[in-house]
């Protein structure tokens, strides 16, 4: 019992010593923070005195400048008024002389002399009356005194608003206003402290799926920075097609800066058309090379290694090679009931169906059967017979190719592919026509759809999905 008490006391003492050590460390940190507060306060007080002294000096200088302007205005106005007084005095003297002469003429008794004198005085009076407008003194009290005013109301309001400057509140990225093309993204944001913000800084990087944005932000090597933005929007150029990006906006003033919440934005897919040089002789391309149609009479094309050839290989490829990013396009199937849509390497054979080799992957329909095909292996998949709009999502960076019923937002199938080379979109039809819609943004309903490739593989091993291809026996009946 004594040994137990001794051991307990020793443990408690050890814990107490450890706790005291932690408290000492905490106290030391608090003392250090207090010292830093003292230093920062002294620095800000000195800055306050310096800034206020500068304001007082500016006011003193402006006072001198405005006082000089007032004196100059006074001298100019008094000089003008003095000239007007001199003119009035001169006019008054002339008028008084004429009045005196007229009165003396009226007192003349000699009739002949009166007529001669009166005629001369009358002419001078008539001339003086005719020029009376010139003799009116040019006095304008409003112009002399009321067009000069000292208005310091705006300055007083600014001075009364002087306060301790703080870093602006974090701006907010308006994702609903942001727009994108295949290689640009225009970011829009708002700020509650718009008038206190000196500039904005935009930072962005490719989104890798990492949800810990703090760790992602601290890995500064991969971030691109656009400084000194004055508006609340900016367009970033030269981005990868079909790629997700993370954006931050930093609001900056002299006191510091604050970051917005992160925003995930993505560029659109790489736009493409059907390449006429690859189209089979019995295919007709129209609608600016966005529509392909089976045409038995179209035999005018010359044979080239790039062109699909061979019996039944009625295909065409897109005019783009994709080696990065996430890309989405749709195929309007119309009334076609026999087609194949997918991707292939450039080296894939052109004289056989896509998916019959290891360099191509396709989703296909033959009448009422839907299949996926790669390396000569086929697997039935479920899809609606009313499928009219097929969505294709190629996520090159994450090694996947998936197909979707775009009208009903339903996932059909996903290939997991370890891409070794750039791929090109491929299309085949055996009846009717199809139309390509490319350069589309990735829809929300296919964003982040999990792959069920492993589940389908398990079903295939269990014999639930594996069947002989209807193409092996159905080519003639579907042709």
Spell out the blueprint of helices and strands:
Elements: H1 2-106, H2 111-130, H3 132-135, H4 141-145, H5 153-160, E1 172-173, E2 179-180, E3 185-190, E4 199-206, H6 213-218, E5 224-229, E6 233-236, E7 244-253, E8 256-259, E9 263-266, E10 283-286, E11 291-294, E12 315-317, E13 326-332, E14 338-345, E15 360-366, E16 369-374, E17 377-380, E18 389-395, E19 400-405, E20 410-416, E21 423-429, E22 433-437, H7 453-461, H8 470-478
Antiparallel strand pairs: 1-3, 2-3, 3-6, 4-5, 4-7, 7-8, 7-9, 10-11, 11-22, 12-21, 13-18, 13-22, 14-15, 14-21, 15-16, 16-17, 18-19, 19-20
Describe the structure.
This protein is an alpha+beta fold and 479 residues long. The chain has three domains: 1-161, no CATH class; 172-267, Sandwich (Immunoglobulin-like), CATH 2.60.40.10; 283-446, Jelly Rolls. The termini are far apart. A hairpin with a 2-residue loop joins β15 (360-366) and β16 (369-374). The strands form four sheets. A seven-stranded antiparallel sheet has the order 10-11-22-13-18-19-20, with no helix packed on it. Strands 12-21-14-15-16-17 form a six-stranded antiparallel sheet, with helices on one face. Strands 4, 5, 7, 8 and 9 form a five-stranded antiparallel sheet that branches. α1 (2-106) runs antiparallel to α2. It has helices spanning 2-106, 111-130, 132-135, 141-145, 153-160, 213-218, 453-461, 470-478, and strands at 172-173, 179-180, 185-190, 199-206, 224-229, 233-236, 244-253, 256-259, 263-266, 283-286, 291-294, 315-317, 326-332, 338-345, 360-366, 369-374, 377-380, 389-395, 400-405, 410-416, 423-429, 433-437. Residues 106-165 form the COS domain. It holds the Pfam family fn3. Residues 6-40 form a coiled coil.
């Amino acid at each position: 019992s004594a040994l137990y008490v001794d051991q307990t006391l020793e443990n408690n003492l050890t814990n107490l010593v450890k706790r005291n050590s932690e408290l000492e460390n905490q106290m030391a940190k608090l003392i250090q923070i207090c010292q830093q507060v003292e230093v920062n306060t002294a620095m800000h007080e000195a800055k306050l005195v310096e800034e206020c002294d500068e304001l007082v000096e500016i006011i003193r200088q402006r006072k001198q400048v405005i006082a000089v302007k007032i004196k100059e205005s006074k001298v100019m106005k008094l000089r003008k008024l003095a000239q007007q007084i001199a003119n009035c005095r001169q006019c008054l003297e002339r008028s008084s002389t004429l009045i005196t002469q007229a009165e003396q003429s009226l007192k003349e008794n000699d009739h002949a002399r009166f007529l001669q004198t009166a005629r001369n005085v009358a002419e001078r009076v008539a001339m003086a009356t005719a020029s009376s407008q010139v003799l009116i003194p040019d006095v304008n009290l409003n112009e002399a005194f009321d067009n000069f005013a000292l208005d310091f109301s705006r300055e007083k309001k600014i001075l009364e608003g002087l306060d301790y400057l703080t870093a602006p509140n974090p701006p907010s990225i308006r994702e609903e206003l942001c727009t994108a093309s295949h290689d640009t993204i225009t970011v829009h944001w708002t700020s509650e402290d718009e008038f206190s913000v000196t500039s904005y800084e935009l930072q962005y990087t490719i989104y890798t799926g990492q949800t810990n944005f703090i760790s992602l932000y601290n890995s500064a090597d991969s971030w691109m920075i656009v400084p000194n933005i004055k508006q609340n929007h900016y367009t970033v150029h030269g981005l990868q097609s079909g790629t997700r990006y993370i954006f931050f906006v930093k609001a900056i003033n002299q006191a510091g800066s604050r970051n917005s919440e992160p925003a995930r934005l993505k560029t659109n897919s790489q736009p493409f058309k059907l390449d006429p040089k690859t189209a089979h002789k019995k295919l007709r391309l129209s609608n600016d090379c966005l529509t392909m149609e089976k045409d038995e009479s179209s035999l005018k094309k010359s044979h080239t290694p790039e062109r699909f050839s061979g019996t039944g290989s009625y295909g065409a490829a897109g005019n783009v090679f994709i080696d990065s990013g996430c890309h989405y396009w749709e195929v309007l199937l119309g009334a076609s009931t026999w087609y194949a849509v997918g991707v292939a390497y450039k080296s894939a054979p052109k004289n056989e169906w896509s998916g019959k080799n290891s360099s191509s992957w396709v989703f296909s329909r033959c009448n009422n059967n839907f299949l996926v095909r790669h390396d000569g292996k086929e697997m039935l998949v479920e899809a609606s017979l009313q499928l009219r709009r097929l969505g294709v999502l190629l996520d090159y960076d994450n090694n996947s190719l998936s197909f979707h019923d775009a009208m009903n937002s339903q996932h059909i199938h996903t290939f997991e592919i370890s891409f070794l080379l750039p791929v090109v979109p491929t299309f085949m039809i055996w009846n009717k026509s199809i139309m390509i819609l490319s350069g589309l943004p990735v829809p929300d309903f296919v964003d982040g759809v999990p792959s069920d490739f492993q589940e389908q593989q398990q079903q295939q091993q269990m014999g639930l999905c594996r069947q002989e291809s209807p193409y092996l026996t159905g080519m003639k009946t579907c042709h």
